[in-house]
Amino acid sequence: MSLPNATAVLxxxxxxxxxxxxxLKLSEPITSALHLDPASTATARTSDVSNSSLEAPTPASLxxxxxxxxxxxxxxxxxxxxxxxxxKFIRAIVxxxxxxxxxxxNLALEQSNATAKAQLKALKSDVAAxxxxxxxxxxxxxxxxxxxxxxxxxxxxxxxRIEGLEESIDALRAAGHGDAAxxxxxxxxxxxxxxxxxxxxxxxxxLDRQIESLGATVPRKRKEVERLGAELATLEARRAxxxxxxxxxxxxxxxxxxxxxxxLEQRGRWWRAxxxxxxxxxxx
Length: 284
What we know:
Elements (H helix, E strand, L loop, with lengths): L2 H15 L5 H4 L1 H8 L2 H5 L5 H8 L3 H36 L8 H72 L15 H68 L2 H23 L2
Helix pairs in contact: 1-7, 5-6
C-alpha cells in the first residue's frame, strides 16, 4: 500500500471511529418514534437502572438492566392477571343477571388457553433463538472491532515505516551501487534475487557446519596448546638457566685470562684477514 492510499484509509477510519457506535445509539430512531406517541409519553416510567445504562452503557450495566426488567415484567404480569381475574369475577357476581359459566364454556376456554400457550411457547422459542443469534452477532462484531482497532494502530505506523524504507532504498541506491560491477546483484530481478538468497543461505549453512565441526576440535586443540605451553615454559626455564651459566662461565674465563682474551681475538681477526688476502692473491 502506497503512502497516499494509507493516509486516505486512515482518514476514513478516523472519520468512522469519531462517531460512537452502540446498540443504544442505533436504537435512537426507534425509541424517538415511540416517544413521540402522546399515549406513551403520558404513561412513560422512569427507572434508575435504565437511566444509568443510557448514560454509560457497559456490559455489566446492561445485564443488570435486563435482570431488573425481567423481574419487573414478571411482577407486572402477575399483578395484571390477578387484577383482571378479580374484575371479571366481581362483574360476574354483581351483574344483572349474573353471568353463569357452563362446563362447555370452560372447556372452550381451556382449549383456547392451550392454543394461546402453545403459540406463546413458540414465540418464546423464536425470541430466545433471536436473542442467541444477536448475542453471537454481538460477539462477532466485538471481535471484528478489536481486529479493526489493531489494524488501525498498525496502519498509523505504516506511513512512517514506508518513509523509512524508502529512505533506506534511496541510501542503498546512492551508496555505491553506481558501480555496475558492484551493483549488479542489487539490480537483479526477483527470481534471480531469490536464487542468490538461497545460494547465500546454503553458504551460511555450510559455514555453520564447518564452525560446528571445528568447534568439536576446540577442546583437543586447547589441551594441545596447554601441553605445548607447558613444554615451552620448561624450555624457557632451561634457556634462561643456560644463558645464566654461559654468562657466569664467560665471567670466570675473563677473570682467569685477565684481559688477554681481547688481544687473542684481535690477533685472530688479523690472521683471518691476512689469510683472506693471500688466498685472493694466490688464487688458491
